[in-house]
Amino acid sequence: MLLVDKPAGITSHDVVSVARRALGERRIGHAGTLDPFATGLLVLLTGHATRLLPFVDGEPKEYEATIRWGAETDTDDATGEITREHAGPPSRAAIDAAIAGLTGRIEQVPPDYSAKQVGGRRAHAAARRGAPLALAPVPVHVYSWKVREHREMETDVTISCGGGTYVRALARDLGRAANSAAHLSALRRTRSGPFELSGATSFTDLRDGRATPRSPREAIPSLPEQRVSAIDAARIARGRRVDAVVEGERAALLSEEGALLAIAERSAEQWQPRVVLAHG
Question: Maximum Cα–Cα distance for the chain, whole Å?
Fold first, then answer.
């Protein structure tokens, strides 16, 4: 596992490409992308550990965002063209009321410039051709908002939300709900589930070969673990069951030395390996 602080101006896939070269590893996967203009935490898994991606707990995600008042854009962020303007910012009372209405489980229309598909067509491709798709609202979960600073034309907020939430769509909808217009002018992801930006390596260190991947065990910290004997480790490498000692429906099986061997699911009083990292 590798935590990377993505800079602005490059895509998440650019970071993956740099990681491939720096680590000499072709197989690299990510647990959630960031838009090119956004910065912050990317969680990468490399090699055999990419098999763990479905089990990585990436929620809630936390962002520091700056919302700019007075204009809505076609991309819902500062990279787009202005499509609607509104003179002056809304009152703080209107902002607070709008935030309350955009907290909890809500229905969100994705941005026109997004990776959503309708009939096999990507929304961003259609939008670039001048024929935006009619995107249906999707349920998302916004856990909380915190207003950190409110200036005349900008508001800094911290947002905690579930996966699949578009923060730039939240900025757009906040402007509308406050009877104004708004777009996202800055975005930084500071947390993804148990992973924090403070533990991430810089993009420069990654590019220059100074990044050290962590143990794959750290990618699944919420799973209980069970250490097994060398004999059981050989069984696990062949996908065979071993006796269950710890409680739970799923567990991380480790060697005596602490290396992650597999993720297993309970079958009666035994563990059935489902994702095996060890080699037989």
Answer: 72
- Give CA–CA dist 150/99, Å, rounded: 14
| Predicted pLDDT of residue 280 | 46
Q: Indicate the SS3 state at residue 199.
A: helix
Report d(CA 204, CA 160) in Å as an integer: 28
72/129 Cα distance (integer angstroms): 20
Same domain, 25 and 114: no
Cβ-based burial of 81 (10 A; exposed 0-12, middle 13-18, buried ≥19): exposed
* CA contacts within 13 A on the Cβ side of 241: 11
Q: Which residues are the active-site residues? A: 35
CATH number at residue 118: 3.30.2350.10
Query: What one-character DSSP code corresponds to residue 54?
Result: G
What is the Cα 187 distance to its own chain's centre? 13
**Average pLDDT in the 250-254 region?**
97
Please confirm whether the linkage preceding 60 is cis (ω < 30° from 0).
yes
Question: Which tens digit of pLDDT belongs to each residue from 125-171?
Answer: 666 777 676 778 899 999 999 999 999 899 999 999 998 899 999 99
Q: Report the C-alpha gap between 47 and 210 in whole angstroms.
A: 18
Print the domain residue range for 173: 61-192
Do residues 207 and 234 both lie within one domain?
no
For residue 147, give every residue at least 6 positions away whose Cβ sits within 8 Å of its Cβ, in sequence order, or none.
95, 96, 99, 155, 156, 157
Residues 10-46: pLDDT tens digits? 999 999 999 999 999 999 998 888 999 999 999 999 9
Residue 136 CB partners (closer than 8 Å, separation 6+): 109
Domain end, chosen from 165, 184, 214, is at 214
73 and 135 together in one domain: yes
Give the pTM.
Answer: 0.91
